[in-house]
Design a protein that fits this description.
This protein is mostly helical. The protein is about 70% helix and about 0% strand. The radius of gyration is 24 Å and the shape is flat. The model has no long low-confidence stretch (mean pLDDT about 80).
Length: about 100
């Protein structure tokens, strides 16, 4: 008599990415490159082009970081906002007590 084999469970399906997430980041990256090109074309000072370049790098990175860190489920997002509000209220109370 053979021992029964354990049947494999259902394979986990990864959650689908949000439809607008890649469009926002892509538009930001393309917009930054277009702004730098336009500034260079019109002969803007080097420091203006440098600021635009820094913003073109930092802005998409910030958007991607926020999309990765902030939960997309509405219940979890609500809990995150409530925790932030409570933290700010406690901080405000402690700063009032120090005065």
């Amino acid at each position: 008599m053979r021992t029964p084999k354990q049947q494999p469970g259902p394979s986990p399906v990864p959650p689908a990415p949000r439809p607008g997430a890649t469009r926002v980041t892509g538009a930001t990256v393309l917009g930054g490159g277009a702004a730098i090109s336009a500034l260079t074309f019109v002969g803007a000072p080097w420091w203006v082009v440098a600021i635009a370049g820094a913003l073109a790098i930092v802005t998409p990175g910030t958007i991607l970081f926020v999309q990765a860190v902030v939960p997309q489920d509405s219940e979890h997002k609500r809990d995150l906002w409530l925790a932030l509000i409570q933290f700010l209220e406690r901080r405000r109370r402690t700063s009032r007590n120090r005065r």
